């Protein structure tokens, strides 16, 4: 999987699942992943064109989003909210896969030069 495809999957999952979380619980904080998803979706064209600065902005936004998902996961576990746990876990996993893919593409680009 290349970095642009991983970023696209991650951004769509953040938008869709974050929206689902907002409409199921109507908490404004559930829109935070949606905002990150939109930012990552806007970066996708630059990632596809291998624009270095845009790729680094995207990986930074993905990393911040990944870190920010740990508290909602903890809260969902404490509330025993199974759907919440599933939603946050999916978003966490897509962020982690995107970061791994970004790092692999950065290493590949470095070796190419």
Tell me what the structure shows.
There is one protein chain. This protein has 113 residues and is mainly α. The protein has one domain. Helices cover 87% and strands 0% of the residues. The chain has helices at residues 3-25, 32-48, 52-68, 70-79, 82-112. The longest helix has 31 residues, at 82-112. The protein starts with a helix and ends with a helix. The model has no long low-confidence stretch (mean pLDDT 91).
| Gyration radius over CA | 14 Å
Largest sheet: none
Overall 3D shape: elongated
Structure class: mainly alpha
Low-confidence stretches: none
Number of domains: 1
Distance between the termini: 21 Å
State which percent range the strand residues make up: under 5%
Number of strands: 0
Q: Write the element-wise H/E pattern from the N-terminal end onward.
A: HHHHH
- Summed up, the helix count is 5
- Mean pLDDT, rounded to whole units? 91
Question: What tags apply to this protein structure?
Answer:
single chain; 87% helix; 113 residues; mainly alpha
Write the layout of secondary structure elements.
Elements lengths: L2 H23 L6 H17 L3 H17 L1 H10 L2 H31 L1
């Amino acid at each position: 999987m290349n970095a642009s495809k991983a970023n696209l999957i991650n951004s769509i999952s953040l938008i869709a699942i974050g929206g689902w979380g907002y409409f199921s619980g109507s908490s404004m904080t559930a829109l935070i992943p949606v905002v990150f998803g939109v930012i990552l979706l806007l970066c996708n064209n630059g990632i596809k064109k291998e624009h270095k600065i845009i790729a680094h902005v995207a990986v930074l936004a993905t990393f911040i989003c990944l870190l920010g998902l740990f508290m909602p996961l903890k809260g969902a576990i404490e509330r025993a909210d199974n759907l919440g746990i599933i939603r946050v876990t999916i978003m966490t996993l897509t962020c982690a896969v995107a970061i791994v893919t970004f790092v692999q593409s950065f290493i590949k680009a470095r070796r190419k030069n």
